[in-house]
Write a structure and sequence with these properties.
β6 (174-180), α8 (183-206) and β7 form a beta-alpha-beta unit. The chain is built from 11 helices and 8 strands. It has helices at 2-27, 48-62, 78-82, 91-96, 98-101, 135-145, 165-171, 183-206, 225-232, 246-249, 261-277, and strands spanning 35-41, 67-71, 112-113, 119-121, 151-155, 174-180, 209-213, 238-242. By secondary structure, the protein is an alpha/beta fold. Mean pLDDT is 89; it is low at 1-13. Helices cover 45% and strands 14% of the residues.
C-alpha cells in the first residue's frame, strides 16, 4: 500500500508543480496602474493582518514592482508586531512630513522592508500622537503611495464603523474578506458582506475574495471548508482556504520561510487570485 501511495503522489506531483508555475505567472501580470486592496474582517481574530502580510510576501517575492502593506487601524500595533517590528518608520512619520512627500518628484516615503521585499508602514501607535489615521489622511496617503507602489494592501481595523473606513472602502479596487473556519467568525463574515452590500458596496463585495483560515482539529465551533464554501460561493468571486499552520498559530512575528509548504502554496494561490481581480475585466 505504501508503494501504491508513493506512486500516486509521484504522478500527482507534476500537476502540482504546473499549478504553482501557472500561479506564479499570473502573479507577475502587469497592472494597468497602482491598485489598492482592502483586507477586512467582521470581528477581531479573523486573520486580517496575517492575510495582509502573507499575501504581501507572496506578491513581493514574485513581482518586480513594489508592494506595500499599510496599517489603517488607528493606534494599532498588530501589523508592526506581526511583521517583526516595530520598525523604524510608521504612517505617522509620513503624515508628519506631508508637505515634503506630497510634492511631485519627492522621494518615496520611508517604509521598512521584510526579507521578501514587502514594504511595511504600520500605524503610529503612540497614545499622544497627532497623526491618527482617519478618512482624509487615508485618502491623501493612498494617493501618495500610489505614485511609488504597484499594490497597496490595507490592513483595516476590526471596527468597520471607524472614520478611516470612509476613506478605505471608496478607494479600494479590490476587497479581501477574512474569516476563521468557525461558526462565530463565518457568521460575522456573512454579516459584514450583507452590511457592505447594503451600504453601497455591492459590486465590491460581489467581486471580493473570501480567505478562510482553517483551524486546528478539535477547535470548538469548527466548520469544514466545504460548509463555508457552499454558503459563500454565490456571494464572492473566489474563496481561498489557508490551512492551519503551526507557525501562524504561535501568534508571533510572521516569517514567510517558516510557513509550511501548503500554507505558502495557498498564499501564492491567493496572490494569483488577487492580481487577477485587479486586471481590467476584459483581460481576466
Amino acid at each position: 500500500m505504501a508503494n501504491v501511495a508513493a506512486a500516486d503522489a509521484a504522478r500527482r506531483a507534476p500537476f502540482g508543480l504546473l499549478r504553482q508555475q501557472g500561479a506564479r505567472s499570473r502573479v507577475r501580470h502587469e497592472l494597468p496602474g497602482p491598485r489598492r486592496v482592502a483586507v477586512v474582517g467582521g470581528c477581531p481574530g479573523t486573520g486580517r493582518t496575517t492575510t495582509a502580510l502573507g499575501l504581501g510576501d507572496a506578491l513581493a517575492v514574485h513581482r518586480s514592482d513594489k508592494v506595500l502593506a499599510l496599517e489603517a487601524a488607528p493606534l494599532a500595533r498588530d501589523l508592526g508586531f506581526r511583521a517583526g517590528g516595530p520598525g523604524p518608520y510608521n504612517a505617522g512619520h509620513v503624515m508628519a512630513a506631508y508637505e515634503h512627500y506630497g510634492r511631485y518628484g519627492a522621494p518615496r516615503p520611508p517604509a521598512w522592508d521584510r526579507p521578501s521585499g514587502l514594504h511595511v508602514l504600520s500605524a503610529d501607535d503612540r497614545a499622544d500622537s497627532r497623526y491618527v489615521m482617519g478618512a482624509d489622511a487615508y485618502r491623501w496617503m493612498s494617493e501618495l503611495l500610489g505614485r511609488h507602489y504597484a499594490i497597496t494592501l490595507t490592513d483595516t481595523p476590526a471596527d468597520m464603523g471607524l472614520d478611516v473606513m470612509a476613506g478605505v472602502l471608496p478607494a479600494a479596487h479590490s476587497l479581501i474578506i477574512t474569516a476563521r473556519a468557525t461558526v462565530p467568525s463565518a457568521s460575522s463574515a456573512v454579516d459584514l458582506w450583507r452590511n457592505l452590500a447594503t451600504a453601497g458596496y455591492r459590486l465590491l463585495v460581489r467581486e471580493s475574495v473570501l480567505v478562510v483560515h482553517l483551524v486546528a482539529p478539535g477547535t470548538a465551533g469548527a466548520l469544514s471548508f466545504a460548509e463555508i464554501r457552499d454558503a459563500f460561493a454565490p456571494k464572492v468571486r473566489d474563496i481561498v482556504p489557508v490551512p492551519w499552520d503551526a507557525h501562524l498559530a504561535e501568534g508571533g512575528p510572521l516569517l514567510f520561510d517558516r510557513l509550511a509548504e501548503p500554507t505558502r502554496a495557498a498564499l501564492l494561490t491567493l496572490a494569483a487570485t488577487t492580481v487577477g481581480g485587479l486586471q481590467p475585466s476584459s483581460s481576466r
